[in-house]
Amino acid sequence: MGVTVGMILGFLGIALAVALPGVGSAMGVGLVGSAGSGVVTEDPDKFGQILLLQVIPGTQGIYGLLTGFVLMMKLGVFSGNVLRLTTYEGFLVIMAVLPVSIVGWLSAIHQGKVAAAGVGVVAKRPEELGKPVTFAAMVETYAVLSFLASLLLIMFGLPLKGVA
Questions:
Q1: Burial track 28-56 (b if 16+ CB lie within 10 A, e otherwise)
Q2: Is the pLDDT of residue 18 over 70?
Q3: How far is CA 22 from CA 79, 114, 131, 137, 164, in A?
Q4: Integer Cα distance of 90 and 162 in angstroms
Q5: Which candidate among 28, 93, 106, 125 keeps its CA 20 to 30 Å from the CA of 160?
Q6: Which residues contact residue 157 at a Cβ distance below 8 angstroms, ignoring those fewer than 6 apart?
Q7: pLDDT for 23-64, tens place per residue?
Q8: Residue 33 and residue 21: Cα distance in Å, rounded?
């Protein structure tokens, strides 16, 4: 039993779903960490507030990883009986992961920028933490919607039968 082009495309879909949001999250979390380090150096008591802002852009990486796991289950990776996808099915897999891959990647970076700007608010007015968290959460909305779109496409929109 050989590997089909569709299988390669299916595994590329898994890689895109996991890697792109993960890279975006790493960049977003890094932006907030860089911005927050100086504040925490001056006032260590603000560590918890800065940490809250820092973890927010990390959720896109989680959404991508979960999408990758669901897709691995759908493709039979965990059971050891990997579906021998047709090329058409492989392209469908890639299309299904594009929402979480692209939106997860870009929204994590932009969410990191918003949260990093919020570090300045916490530095000057720590009692106003809710405002920068709300701003960052607004970006999260689109990451959640893209995650939902990819999950629905994978679970209900992929008519995967494979080849004999």
A1: bbebbbebbeebbeeeeebeebbebbbeb
A2: yes
A3: 25, 18, 26, 18, 35
A4: 10
A5: 106
A6: 92, 96
A7: 999 999 999 999 999 999 999 999 999 999 999 999 999 999
A8: 18
* Domains of the chain as residue ranges with CATH: 5-156 (1.20.120.610)
Q: How many CB atoms lie within 10 A of CB 162?
A: 17
Mean pLDDT, rounded, for 83-100: 98
The token duo for 21 is 């949001």
pLDDT at 1 over 70: no
Phi, psi of 160 (to 5 degrees): -90, 120
* Alpha-carbon Rg for the chain in angstroms: 19
Structure-token pair, residue 145: 């919607």
- Cα(first)–Cα(last) distance of the chain, in Å? 10
